Hints:
Largest sheet: 6 strands, antiparallel
Amino acid sequence: MSAFQKETVLSVRHWTESLFSFTATRDPGFRFQNGQFAMIGLEVEGKPLMRAYSMASANHEEALEFFSIKVQDGPLTSRLQKIREGDVILVGRKATGTLITGNLIPGKRLLLLSTGTGLAPFASLIKDPDVYENYETIVLAHGCRQVSELAYGEHVVDGLRSHELFGPLIRDKLVYYPTVTREPFRNRGRITDLIASNQLFDDLGLTGLDIETDRIMLCGSPAMLEELPAMFTARGFVEGNHSQPGHFVIEKAFVER
């Protein structure tokens, strides 16, 4: 258990029957880069039951925040979804992950492409002042099946836009594009298809994908993480990592169980 820090749950909010977010205390010694993840979980029968979760909070915030799916028979999430204020969770002492700006070649436009709870690391990144210093435009795309599943992302973006410090900083730079696949909505379709057809860029009044200026981060469903990298690679984009920055990076460690 020495690899984990015990933290106290500060708040829990259930967004839908299948999605919730929660905040917890943060040990002063816990450091992370925006976009990274840590192992978090619960002590069950004297043993740690852990899964990888991206921090949805920024590294300058005092509390930690996480965004999670509920899986009724999931070993961890079946228990985690029942936490309440005052409960204790475990947080790994080390953060890691590929969704950090240092793994990208410098560019002008940053595309943050997510589905479901894959939004979490981008909720952290869009709170990072350095991101707005390094890019002229940040496009946050979030794909879900139903409109109700967009609520957390809308909450995060609306909070930033109304923030007295961040609001003016992001007003002309952050572009939010929510889309759904199973209900009527102003944006419809899978992010993969919307990128391939250029519809996403047309809807936003932006120029299409450009290897000279665009840098991309991906976090979401297995299908998206298979299809989009193949599409980008076919167009000459190179995947980046800790040892060699590239045009796009992928995170596969967010929780779906």
